[in-house]
Amino acid sequence: MRATRLLISLAGLLAFAALPACGPALPPPARPAPALPPPPDAPRPAEAPTADDGYEAPARVPTPAASLPPAPDAPAAPATPTAVSPAAPEAPAAPEAPAAPAAPEAPAAPEAPTPARAAPAPSLPAAASAYQPEASAMPAPSKALRLILNDPSGRKAPTDTCDVELCRSLLALIDGSTQTIDFALYGMRNQTTIFKALKRARKRGVRIRGVVDRTLDGKNYYSSTEALVAALGTVRDDLEAEKRHAREKKDMANPFAFGVQPMCPRPVGFEGPLQCLAYDLGDKCLLAAHASRESLDGSGAIMHDKFFVVDGQHVWTGSTNVSDSGTGGYNANLVTVIDNAQIAGLYTREFEQMWLGGLYHDYKEVNGGPWSIELDDQTTVDVLFSPQHKPITKSIRKLIKRAGWKIDIAVFFLTHKGITEDLIKAHRRGVEVRVILDATAAKNGYSKHELLRAAGIPLKIEHWGGKMHMKSAVIDESIVITGSMNWTSAGEGGNDENTVIIHSVAHGEQYARFFDQLWAAIPDRWLAGRPDPESKDSTTACTDGVDNDYDHRADAQDPGCGPNPPPLPALPPWQLVPKTAKRCKDLHRPDGAEE
């Protein structure tokens, strides 16, 4: 089953280093936000602290990227426009699951020199109230970067249309192309307008190359992918990488069964890899044991990118799949459109590792980076790719630790235990933290939403028919985190993903206003509890033709839409205990066990 495959992309990854929090950098002054456009449409082994506690800015790229090498178009197989197939939900992302102990990782290639950034301000005391900056005039957004944010309110079902800006922005790039189009897509479903635009571009002589995801049995999750592959004739996939991984693990025992004594009791009814969690809340310790209900074998990874590079100059990327629920506008999503040859060159280099080299997942080369590109005086963009650049470890966690006064997060899956720890610490030192999470993701045994709430962080679970599909945040209304990567260990450590970090007050405040809009639209009742994603609690979920909770039943066939909906399955338990002389983490260790 495709959903299961997405849950098990974790074997062989190393532990991520938990870095001690440093003092937050005071944010730039808050400014009046621009008006929004009308809405169109696991675990790892215990981390060891290190001395490095500051944000590690990617190396700046001094020269434009080289031009693309010529590659003749392969003859296209005859095809007819893709037919509209019944809507299906977006595939769930991988949960957090324990990684197998592994041999020490080979040293990474030396990172390019780090440009100097402003030093962080002294740490706020734990009980301090959030810093509030003074208001001043806001600069205009960069002309080289557009941040497109999609509010799904008012959309009744996934549609084969291109009437939202997420889709129109891509259509304009394809129709305006004159030389080359390279794309990396998880797949395509019911987006006839984009399908026809690609065929028109190919007919007028534009060289088109693409990569898509494949399961080990050669399938793709999205129903229109095969028609796309047949029509273009130059689309490749990660199937050989999947087969290679399967061969390499064939004789390996269950990577999660090492005979090691568990650090905490396994919750009853949860068979997946056990994740023992302990968070310091000051006078109390928050303890939990997370696991999936089903057992996992730790295999597989996915080509989860969603990006286009057009004419070596334009990049379209973000959390949005080319699907009836993605570019069709049914899900909350974002897209970043960048007009910059250097950034386009970086994406082309990543693309060609896959298309030319056949290198996917852990087989990709580091190939330089991460990078930081200055678009203008007001905007700098950091570019990172998974798994080689470890975006959570190298950037996201460090940015959270440096947050001065505010963090707003909108994500599909949040199962990463290190990010959870960083958010709890930020909240305790006075940073205002808010989170919006997807309702389907909240059913996952590794979801951290109950722990964040227990620590006092306001967290709402969306109640739409569609998904909270973004993988994003804004920090101090001046740093926007975007991309295709779910906030999971699989997203950082195995899948093919891309992460874009935008340093810009104008775009930061644009995102902050959009987040406020979504937050206000979700009823306060979902600050506690969780709506069933296939029920009348989730607005259009019972009439949208979609199996929203992945149980192979949709709308009236799902008990959640019936007159007596059953309760949601329980999540793994958690508890608050008085803090003793031991560290909170020590409370989860059996006597005499090594950490």
Describe this structure in words.
- The N terminus and C terminus are likely disordered.
- The protein has a nine-stranded mixed beta sheet with strand order 1-13-14-20-19-18-15-16-17, with helices on both faces. It has a seven-stranded mixed beta sheet with strand order 2-12-10-9-3-5-6, sandwiched between helices. The protein has a three-stranded antiparallel beta sheet with strand order 7-8-21.
- By secondary structure, the protein is an alpha/beta fold.
Annotation keywords:
disordered N terminus; seven-stranded mixed sheet; nine-stranded mixed sheet; 595 residues
Topology:
Layout: H1 2-6, E1 59-60, E2 145-150, H2 165-176, E3 180-185, E4 188-189, H3 192-203, E5 207-212, H4 225-232, E6 235-237, H5 239-249, E7 275-280, E8 284-290, E9 306-310, E10 314-318, E11 322-323, E12 333-339, H6 341-355, E13 371-376, E14 379-386, H7 391-402, E15 406-411, H8 417-428, E16 432-437, H9 449-454, E17 459-461, E18 471-475, E19 479-483, H10 489-493, E20 497-503, H11 505-521, E21 574-578
Parallel strand pairs: 1-13, 3-5, 4-11, 5-6, 15-16, 16-17
Antiparallel strand pairs: 2-12, 3-9, 7-8, 8-21, 9-10, 10-12, 13-14, 14-20, 15-18, 18-19, 19-20
Helix pairs in contact: 2-3, 7-8
